[in-house]
User: Fold TATA box-binding protein-associated factor RNA polymerase I subunit B, isoform B from Drosophila melanogaster.
Amino acid sequence: MRARKSLKRHMPLKHLDKHSRDSKGSMSCHSLRPRVKQLHNFDRNIYCLNIIKLYVVLGIALNMVEDDIQLSDLLRFIDEEHLTKRCMLNYLPGNVAAKGKALLKDMELSKMKDKVTNKLLRVNIACMSRFINLSEYQKPNLHSLAERYILELALPPRLLKYVNSLLDLHPPTFFNAMTVHPYPRYEARTMAYILYAMKLLFGLDDLKERNISESAAKINEKLLEVGGDEAPLLFVFTEWMEFVEMRKVIVSHYNQSFARRFGVSTRTGCQVDDILAKEWKEKEQGETFGWMQGSAAMKRQHENLTHIIETMLKDHFGESSKESMEKEHIEFQPSLTPAHSYFNRILLQVSRSDGAKMKITIPDHMKVDHSARNLDPFVLETTELSQYLSQHGLKLRVEELACQEDIQNVGIFRPLTIIRGDGREYRANTEIKTETWISELKRKEKRPDFRFTQPTGTYGARYLKRITMRDARRVQLEINNPFWDVTETPSFLLKLNDNEIPLDSLSSLQTFEEGTMDPLNIPLDLPRRNLEKILNPEGSDRASDQVASDINDEPPSPETLLLQVSNFDCWLLHGYMKRIRRHDKHELRQLFPCSFRWLLETCASTIGIVWEELYEELLIVEVMYHHSIRDWSNHRNYLCIQHNTQEKDIRTLARTYKELW
Assistant:
């Protein structure tokens, strides 16, 4: 009725009745486009049709059919022009695309942002899912996704087994209780598990991974001497870093989309050749944009300008744009592992007879396959390596390294609380002098840009009593519940020197198998470490002095090789990533060790996101494993979140990131 009253001012009532009876819209006397006074963000994301909506529908469809192509892969295909974004009519049905310009004018294509980004596409998918009342998204196979990312990063497959064990320990649910219909970050969470595993294995504190790499490199030199090229070489973290960084530069020389994603600067000539290659590819596919070029005179003008530029290039450089583009151009096919596939394609091109024409030279160390290196000793599986060395008269000694002590506990980083201004009236002083104004500005106390607080917050007596009573009530309900069957971990006793030692007091090296890291069903006959020092504390000093004197008397044996590994302890820097400013993120980034910062940015660029999103997913994993799980001995039966802890800051942090698990 409101629309009828407003339209009565523009046309007679009889003509308005004709329009009301015209359900098919066959009347073409005039167009009455609806006008809205206010268009909200949700309405604009839904009702304003543009090419992003087609990508949104495609992204939802790929998720519903559980395809291997994830949202990050879709964005990369768009950026690499495998899915063209220049001609929208190619995606529409033939009868709809025939309308051409009139259709694009009605869709108001120029009134919306057409630049496709990860954040924009996720927001639009969330709005579309809410609009169509989509119940839930299909969770992809995280194990196969982790396998693909490990292959892309040229890491050994043994890391996949370690990552899969972390995934199976407490599988993520991707339930976000904070927003409505958010598209989960499947790729970022999987990459966060890989980053967390590398952090446990190598420390990533600028010192531990360097010591581990130096010891592994020395063992590799000895292995090459005794075993030749067939020797099982160890994985060296620093050499792998050099390989990945050099691979970025080589692939970026032939693919500008790859260079933009990893932030590698290239020559202007390479960028021009990339643009020309895309233009020639579109011409070969018949995408000449005739529906956008206008009249025949404009087409002739475009052809004349093209001919003039081609003539100038031919006279000045001696070759046309097509010849210049095809001289050192490699056509890459769409791939789910671009860095791995593109680099192998470049190596294949160099190995051919016509590869001598290429301007780039591949160093010999870039032909090393780091994914074939041995990673087992770094996860405490040293049996095969020790047996191989013993066959050649060598001994292996494994030493665990802890995190460096220079890393201080800076606390939990927090965003600044927004202080809302009051309703006071402010008046400008137009007669103030410049010197007085500057001095007043200097006297004002500036708020800190970013703040760290120690996790020393505690609860009040009343609230602490309340949560303690709730925890006691919860434990009592679990005891009285007949369906709640929780068995305690069996305890074994080891007999050593007529003394019984509880198995729980031994380390993971003694209580877990090396092959599967599953707890042993029966205790070991003998421990793997010398426990006499623990059993005889009064004689420990005398024994240590005797061992030291023996070491000083006997020269060190050159046949003993030292391998340094991580003790699976890592540094933690936790806090709240939401609502912190860009300047705060820059300051937080400077606190990261250089090796971790490099790996964080490399992994984030691999899946096409910013490092802040990946670090937030890493925080979710670390907070769950380090602060939320109370009893690891019964993790097979249940995982209990800490409810009765008195650490207020840690509990608040755990509860916040628990909502994102």
Summary: The first strand starts at residue 395 and ends at 401. The beta strands are 395-401, 412-414, 451-453, 493-496, 499-502, 560-566.
